[in-house]
Amino acid sequence: MVWEVFRQERAGQAFQHAGSLSAPDLRFAEIYARDFYGRRNESEALWLVPREQIHGVGEFADELERNYHRVDGYSLKAKLKEARDRAGKAPAGDR
Amino acid sequence: MTERAKLLLEIADDELILGWRDSEWTGIAPFLEEDVAFSSIAQNEIGHARALYELAAGDLGTTADELAFDRTPEEYRCAQLVELRRLDWAHTIARHWLYETADAIRIEALKASDDAELAGLAAKIDREEVYHRMHAEMWAERLRNEPRFREAVDELWPYAFGLLEGEQREALCERVERQAVEPVVRGGHSDELRELWEEMTIVRRSVPGAAW
């Protein structure tokens, strides 16, 4: 049975994935996790999660390239330049 | 030698020799996770031995290294339980479980001692032994119905019984749910200790007084 281990480095911090280990049950997993991720005082606390309890989600469709949904934002640079060029060429009265 | 120094040496020798024996599994334990865990237990036991030798060395006007490596095999005070070279997992876990159970009784008594130094060191050691006991108990429970494990416990029981004395023996019987037997008492040594001693002291003997 594979266990995923998450560790908290300092009190109050978010838990981060540390690695995984193989153990037949929770008692064994706890002992091994203490040794792997706790014996050097490198962790404040650990979470042990059976891998089979983790539901993975992946493959996010973006067929229509709606880049305004993305966290990296949507680039205004090209559009701004285009707009400036258009504005620069246009007669003053049309602005 | 004072009673206190004798007691310290008994426990220190038990921990050193058992730590050495347990470390023989490093690299060849049944699976990777256990290899790391059992090696770490072995390392802890040797650490406890060092702390105990240091306390004894203060009383005896010597050093921990001299106590650990410069005595003759006959001068060691360890119980035969820890000397046996038993490279099969059933015996290793049987010994580990019997030893940790007996050691817990001994440490509890030391923690309650009027000798503040001894009680303080026992409390410190016990904070690590808690995890050794958790480890030993989970394995013992897992192997409880395995014939090889049960035979190993039967075989080692007289040795474990001889690790302790007096009332502590009764406490051990209760905890492991076994009857008193003719104990293999502390004092005599097996040939296996001499072999281990040859290996353990080879560096000290080849370059006396070496430090690194």
Number of helices of chain A: 2
Number of helices of chain B: 10
Straight-line distance between termini of chain A: 70 Å
Tell me the strand order in the biggest sheet of chain A: 2-1-3
Give the full name of the CATH homologous superfamily of one domain in chain A: Phenylacetic acid degradation B
- Name the CATH superfamily classification of chain B: Ferritin, core subunit, four-helix bundle
Q: Let me know the largest β-sheet of chain A.
A: 3 strands, antiparallel
Query: Distance between termini of chain B?
Result: 30 Å
The CATH top-level class label of chain B: Mainly Alpha
CATH top level label of one domain in chain A = Alpha Beta
How does this structure look, described?
- The complex is a heterodimer of chains A (95) and B (212).
- Chain A has 95 residues and is an alpha+beta fold.
- Chain A has a domain at 2-53: Phenylacetic acid degradation B (Ubiquitin-like (UB roll), Roll), CATH 3.10.20.520.
- In chain A, 26% of the residues lie in helices and 21% in strands.
- In chain A, strands 2-1-3 form a three-stranded antiparallel β-sheet, with helices on one face.
- Chain A starts with a strand and ends in a 6-residue tail after the last helix.
- In chain B, helix 5 crosses helix 8 (167-176).
- The radius of gyration of chain B is 17 Å and the shape is globular.
- Chain B starts with a helix and ends in a 6-residue tail after the last helix.
- The A-B interface holds A 21-24, 27-28, 30-32, 34-36, 39 and B 31-34, 36-37, 40, 131, 134-135, 138, 142.
